[in-house]
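Methods — Computational structure assignment.
A single polypeptide chain was analysed. Its primary sequence is given first, followed by the predicted tertiary structure written as structure tokens.
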Amino acid sequence: MPASRSRLAVIFLTVFIDIVGFGIVIPILPYYAEHFGAKGLEFGALLGVYSLMQFFANTLLGRWSDRVGRRPILLATMLLNAAGYVLFAFAGSYWTLFLSRVIGGFAGGNIGAAQAYVADITTPVERSRGMGLLGVAFGLGFVLGPGIGGLAARYLSHAAPGLVAAGLSLVNFASGWFILAESLQPERRASLRGIGFGAIVRGLRDRRLRPLMLVWGIFPFAFAGYTTALPLHAGATLGWHEGELGLFFVVFGLTGALVQGLVFRLLAPRLGERALVIAGTGGVAISMTAVPFTHSSLALYAWTIPLAFSQGLVSPAASGLVSLYADPSEQGETLGAAQAFGAIGRMFGPEAIGKAYDLWGSLTAFLLAGGVMALAWLATLGMEKETRA
């Protein structure tokens, strides 16, 4: 295997384990929290603090990776991930569980550094294809994580999911230690100091980056809200329970992974990333808006396939465009800022759309999610056409 492919494989594994580790704890987190006497507010805090820490970590780690290189940041977060999952496995109180989520969220903020590594070792023409590979890791991790967690907890012990995730993180560290060479040469490193929040402001001020940064914030807000309202709608109108919902997300995740791994690689060179972001965002908005008008499982699946297909086009194309538009010495910082926008959207989207569902029902919630996604589509129209030197 060529060196670049082996390094891409390690980065793929890094992102995959981040998402698998996140998904592993999802099936058991509610029961784990309840065991320690957590109510709705405390459980919400366990979910929210993960995204909050990702927000801070993406800005901080992205900037650090531009200064010290990608390799030390990635290796350190792999070990930190393992420590967080061990803490999760043996948590003896709510606050220990909370601390494990703080550590996990911060370590999961290495996505920007991982994307910057891909940007370092790929040419501009190959850039979005590399980002598409990370999208496949997201999709597969999203599918396999909850399944691994549920089976490990059921057939082994309540500590098993955390220990499995910790073991995967250590395997990731070992492979990274032996395979990952530093991708950022010393002459390309930035000397900027600080936490990195300035990158968010600069991204909004930059004429080329501004539309993309808006998309990175609005898209996750609407999508996270959609995933909050969907189980409520499916349970109330279709009688779905855990099994049906689990299968639904498996189909969604596999469709997205196939699109990012195969279809995107065919379409990007022909149509360009800008066109795929515009078309994909519009497709997601339409598919979300159609959900409350579905009255059978078949109809819901019929709209889920185009939604997953469209979403699978947007993620790698948007990441590739951010990398192409960013200064070469600020790849990590800029990609980290984009991920930070996404974390903000994921923090507030579920609460806003979920509250709309509680107050006004399914129709309003999905129309609101689709309307917000339509705003993201409008932002995409302001993007410049990409150029590759």
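Note: The radius of gyration is 20 Å.
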